[in-house]
Amino acid sequence: MSTDSSVRPGADVPDARGRTGLHRTGLDLDRNPRVRVRDVELLASSWHVLRKTTLDYQDSDGEWTTQQRETYDRGNGATVLLYDAERRTVLLTRQFRYPVYVNDHPDGMLVETAAGLLDDDDPETAIRREAEEETGVAIGEIAHVFDVYMSPGSVTERLHFYAAAYDGGSRDGDRGGLVEEGEDIELIELDIDEALARIRDGRIQDAKTIMLLQWAVLDGPFRTHAPTGSTTG
Questions:
Q1: What is the biggest distance separating any 2 CA atoms in the chain, rounded to whole angstroms?
Q2: Tens-digit pLDDT profile for residues 150-189
Q3: Which residues lie across from 50 on neighbouring strands?
Q4: Cβ 94 vs Cβ 111: under 8 Å
């Protein structure tokens, strides 16, 4: 039985997640008059989406060039730093990440802040869900820190950063994650100074985690003094 190779899952017919029209993303962009999107080719959509886009770009000299860019669209995500200001601790996760394992990480067991994709939720709802699933901590009051494009050269994801207090004295257990989703997560509670030391010696190499830990001591719950205002002479 022959198959029609021109029929593309995710474009003409639903892919495994029921999506169609994935080959049209970006064609209607007009916010930047120096960018004209000409064509979008859907390369893969087995779970997340890989596209090759052809565009015209006008440089600072006024010249137009035709460029091609591959983008990986995995959706947007959120992450949260869980901290106990009184005990000066943070609650992190440790789990196997194959992409870092295949790129020279010693064992692929990456130390991270709790994080996850938004799916169909708003960022705050999503990170409350992910934090409880990964750590067992139900977040109360939560503070938005900043939003960051983590790998803008090829990955579309925008990550929403949060911080929230947790009660380390009442925490129970050192494992987290949903077994039915194949998650095997170790919980690691660290003194903030120990966490910073692990950044320096390379035991913490995850970008979002480093950003939140450094924010915590510069502007967050572990800063040693309030920032001083500017003065004029």
A1: 84
A2: 999 999 999 999 999 998 766 666 756 555 555 689 999 9
A3: 44, 72
A4: yes
